[in-house]
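Page 37, continued from 36.
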């Protein structure tokens, strides 16, 4: 027999499955050493001779009486809390209110007012109705704990107030999806940011005037191009003019936060408007491209809605360099190009956290759900070699895909943005006719 096998056999009694049997024999030994076999008595005698950790020479005693003593004391001192039927009913309703709050955080976006065309009817979602939790009109003026919400500093609110706050926050012009995130701190951050203002950002009079100015510029350009160049391809932004106002806000806020560069990738829809009203391309240069009078420095040219551009924009935090990537007609293929450009710029700056360069990618709803390169690029988001610190994705949903006019024929998911849940990215659905929300 090998030395290893002999060693295993000599220690087989220490196998974990034998622990209860060995413990029972040890208890018998402590009670009466003569009650166990000579071999086990010798083994237990050796254990008794092991020095105590505190340096004393006290010998072990039987454990069973000690355990039984503590069990009896626990029984003697045990107490029960008896609550009245009314108190139990109130406690049960409090639990139901918390379930209602959780339901709005998870499903409220489906009741949000998102469609400017009013084509979609509000779906029936029982979980968003108080009756689903046995809460009736008679409960509306009862106060409940609201310590896990951020609507108010008060610790208690009536059910009516809680319900109104939930609907204003999660069922208004902004529908938020963030409960699929697994990190609790991130979810609390979103809850605090949304519930504290009830999803209604506040702007000063000057800020509102600036939003109006951006909307006017966006619509004015589209109307001029439509009137001047009838029938020419321009991939209008009409109906999505608030996107220009949001891009202006992104640039200005990014500059204040220390961003030095923004790399933008987008397809055709709204590209001409971005060139003029976001990056500052001279309108005369754009018009010359429509008139075919623009100089061509290369043997072959490209259509105007593929052209890239770069410029420096002044913000309150300093200048920010904007770069609009050149774009082919292959939808979404620019996504990894933008991420690669941002990664190179970050490496050049020695920025490992992605704080100085921001990628912004603009999508159409049909392409975002339909092109595989979207998922492939998202899958690289958290990898060590391709991490860029996060990307701002803006999806302009004009409710018309290139070959489909009904979402039921273009995707199998509820939203075109559902693919981003694979990386636990939060999603904000916004009504395009509410520029302040956008």
């Amino acid at each position: 027999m090998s030395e290893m096998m002999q060693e295993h056999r000599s220690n087989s009694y220490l196998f974990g499955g034998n622990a209860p049997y060995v413990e029972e024999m040890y208890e018998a030994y402590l009670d009466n050493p003569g009650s166990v076999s000579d071999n086990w008595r010798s083994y237990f005698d050796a254990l008794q001779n092991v020095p105590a950790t505190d340096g004393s020479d006290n010998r072990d005693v039987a454990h069973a009486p000690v355990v039984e003593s503590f069990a009896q004391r626990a029984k003697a001192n045990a107490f029960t809390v008896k609550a009245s039927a009314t108190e139990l009913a109130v406690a049960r309703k409090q639990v139901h209110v918390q379930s209602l709050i959780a339901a709005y955080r998870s499903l409220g976006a489906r009741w949000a007012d998102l469609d400017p065309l009013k084509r979609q009817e509000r779906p029936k979602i029982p979980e968003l109705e108080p009756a689903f939790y046995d809460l009736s009109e008679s409960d509306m003026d009862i106060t409940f704990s609201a310590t896990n919400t951020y609507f108010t500093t008060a610790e208690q609110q009536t059910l009516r107030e809680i319900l109104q706050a939930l609907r204003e926050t999660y069922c208004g012009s902004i529908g938020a999806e963030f409960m699929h995130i697994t990190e609790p701190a991130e979810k609390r951050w979103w809850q605090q940011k949304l519930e504290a203002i009830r999803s209604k950002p506040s702007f000063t009079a000057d800020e509102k005037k600036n939003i109006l100015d951006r909307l006017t510029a966006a619509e004015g350009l589209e109307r001029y191009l439509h009137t001047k160049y009838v029938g020419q391809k321009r991939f209008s932004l009409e109906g999505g003019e608030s996107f220009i106002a949001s891009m202006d806000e992104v640039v200005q806020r990014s500059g204040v936060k220390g961003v030095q560069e923004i790399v933008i990738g987008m397809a055709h829809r709204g590209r001409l408007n971005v060139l003029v009203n976001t990056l500052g391309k001279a309108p005369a240069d754009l018009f010359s491209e429509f008139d075919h009078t623009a100089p061509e420095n290369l043997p072959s040219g490209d259509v105007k809605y593929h052209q890239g551009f770069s410029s420096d924009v002044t913000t309150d935090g300093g200048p920010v360099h904007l770069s609009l990537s050149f774009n082919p007609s292959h939808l979404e293929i620019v996504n990894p190009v933008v991420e690669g450009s941002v990664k190179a710029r970050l490496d050049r700056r020695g920025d490992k956290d992605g704080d100085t360069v921001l990628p912004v990618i603009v999508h159409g709803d049909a392409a975002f759900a339909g092109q595989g390169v979207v998922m492939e690029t998202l899958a690289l988001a958290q990898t060590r070699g391709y991490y860029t610190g996060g990307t701002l994705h803006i999806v302009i949903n004009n409710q018309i895909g290139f070959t489909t006019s009904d979402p039921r024929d273009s995707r199998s998911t509820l939203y075109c943005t559902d693919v981003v849940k694979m990386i636990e990215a939060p999603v904000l659905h916004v009504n395009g006719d509410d520029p302040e929300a956008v």
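The chain has three domains: 1-45, 85-171, 205-294+303-430. Flag for discussion at group meeting. The chain has a mean pLDDT of 86.
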